[in-house]
């Protein structure tokens, strides 16, 4: 190119840049994630807990009543949130830390990678729990990888200071800030000195340290609301009361983060999303693909859509929708690429932004789980369509595995003790039924919220069963699920992928 042409091109680019920054103001995203949080929120009709900051956010946003995680385990869920791909497609089959050592495939193009390539500044404060680092790059990162997770994930004074630091940077680019609280995760397995939910960490008592911005809320066990899938016992109630206290700390932290956003002048240009990674850490919750293990709170607060503020939406949302939603907000297209071979990766989630304009007919959500801890291999695939939820337990002859964290919890220890002694468990299912499941489980969640009555063998639901099985199988093929033929056949890829029968009597 001749020097004059080059100069003209430069001028043109500068002009375009000026128009861009001078035209529509930058749009930003703040993603707030709870760790094992559930529906213990005023906005979701829990009247026993006080969550004024989440309730205020709900009044500035749309409240989803049918939002689901695609997997009920921490690292796999975070990886699927940050890629838009289910665990079997992004490779994060289980937990990331220590001996579990799961990672996403090197070729995955994650949300932070796509955003930074498109000129969006990215930050993470709190629990990261995904890898490898090159797949999940952040410009600004204070996580368990280089800080104490208690400090960056539960100390709300520290979190406030880090958010302020991120927002104060003199960077012109729009931003994506991901604040991943470690509250209200259990603590009994890792830091029992702070109580079963770390509810005493930073409360000012001797040896607990102090979190200056936190006013601890104490709850009486008799007053908590026990979810239908949790045993109603004094042990579980005490556990829930401790959980409420840590949710209160997170709620106050959310208030501080939003105040920082307002102070820095970004409240009116930022899409704020609140959700959680997986079910609550109680029997039937985390690690299960029952509705009780996958249903999540989801608040979507857009400054540009005040018409839907404070409204409820029954439309189905999946956490697989967050990547498409955030890309849509920034008008960034999803790239054409493949992770393995020539098969192009396609997002099966959708942008949720249309729900901010008007009610949507969405009625389907898929889930896929393989592990939690490395020892906890229990592959399941699930779909909920309207009121019906179908779960395929691939290795259903194995006992359902229990994680280390749940095992030592007062709720589970009490359940074991009661079951062993033949005393009433006050639980809606038996331990035996919890461990040994049918291959296909079909529930009508509208009539049977406890998911106690398996309709799969009932001929009256034969048509529903076939319809949901077909939907689930199609999604497995669409997402390149290596388990698509299991457990009665083997996937053979040569020429065209096909299931070859095993004749193993399943
Ligand atoms: C809370 O309860 C009210 C009154 O029963 C109901 O209309 C509303 O749908 C409930 N909210 C949620 C989030 O389920
Ligand atoms: C953590 O890493 C970030 C870079 O991502 C760096 O700015 C920060 O200083 C590190 N924090 C600590 C405590 O090392
Ligand atoms: C929380 O963070 C603040 C600010 O960094 C610090 O002063 C305080 O000691 C921390 N609290 C605990 C319990 O570690
Ligand atoms: C916030 O943004 C909306 C729409 O983008 C606009 O109508 C409103 O005036 C703005 N409010 C403030 C305080 O800037
Ligand atoms: C369960 O039983 C064991 C041994 O009998 C006892 O030490 C423990 O305190 C009991 N736990 C609960 C939560 O009841």
Automatic annotation (TrEMBL):
Q: Which UniProt keywords apply?
A: Glycoprotein, Hydrolase, Signal
* SUPFAM superfamilies linked to this entry: Alkaline phosphatase-like
Entry keyword Ribosomal protein? no
**What InterPro entries does the annotation carry?**
Alkaline_phosphatase_core_sf, Sulfatase_CS, Sulfatase_N
Q: Which Pfam families match?
A: Sulfatase
Entry superkingdom:
Eukaryota
Q: Which GO terms describe its molecular function?
A: N-sulfoglucosamine sulfohydrolase activity; sulfuric ester hydrolase activity
Q: Which residues form the signal peptide?
A: 1-21
From its record, what is one biological process in GO terms?
determination of adult lifespan
Query: Which Gene3D superfamilies does the UniProt entry name for this protein?
Result: Alkaline Phosphatase, subunit A (3.40.720.10)
| Domain Sulfatase N-terminal residue range list | 27-331
Cofactor(s) required for function per UniProt = Ca(2+)
Any GO CC annotation of this UniProt entry: lysosomal lumen
Q: Which family does it belong to?
A: Belongs to the sulfatase family.
PANTHER family, A to Z: N-ACETYLGLUCOSAMINE-6-SULFATASE FAMILY MEMBER, N-SULPHOGLUCOSAMINE SULPHOHYDROLASE
Output this protein's name. N-sulfoglucosamine sulfohydrolase
Species: Ficedula albicollis
The lineage is:
Eukaryota, Metazoa, Chordata, Craniata, Vertebrata
- UniProt lists the gene as SGSH
